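Quick one:
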Amino acid sequence: MSAARETLGDSGAGKSSLIRQLLMQIENRRQTAVVYDPAREYLLQFYNEERGDVVLNPLDARMPYWNPAEEVLNPLEAEAVAKSLFPDRAGANGNIASSSAIGTVGRMKETVHA
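Output:
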């Protein structure tokens, strides 16, 4: 069974406690969960490398190597990835492309055609 959950509430309403209870149930059932945890408040209690858990946080040394350029199959995908990483920013003449995005697109296109 697949399900998505979002927990909203005021500070102190018990969101963290509810999520912790749900994660304990999921763990006891040996089910899988994807947890968006920017504050890493659940990591210490629930992360289990032996179970095969994966941390997707570029600031955490446990994150597996990932290079988005290796997933790009064609120049249009390269441009989409670059624009998502480096969105256009407003300039004096309206929206101008970030020079970082242009460079990233160029390097990704070179990777695609290599």
